[in-house]
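Bit of a strange request maybe. I'm writing a small parser for structure token strings and I need a real example to test against, not something I typed by hand. Could someone generate the tokens for this chain?
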Amino acid sequence: MGFSYNKLRGRIIEKFGTQEKFAKELGISNTTLSRKMTGEVQFTQKDIIAWCELLDVNLSDAAPYFFT
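Reply from user aminoacidic:
Good idea to test on real output. This should exercise your parser:
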């Protein structure tokens, strides 16, 4: 089963302008970020926590961003 990360992608653009800037802020390569966004690599709990912190998303509101 695949997930849609459209809402997550929109939030990244809203807060950082580009996925590349967001990847840099996370300290990961743009390739790694892209692989997660396409479902090639799964998100870890640590990823979800870090991404939510940078994107100003409460963990209680994370489901629509990561599990749609």
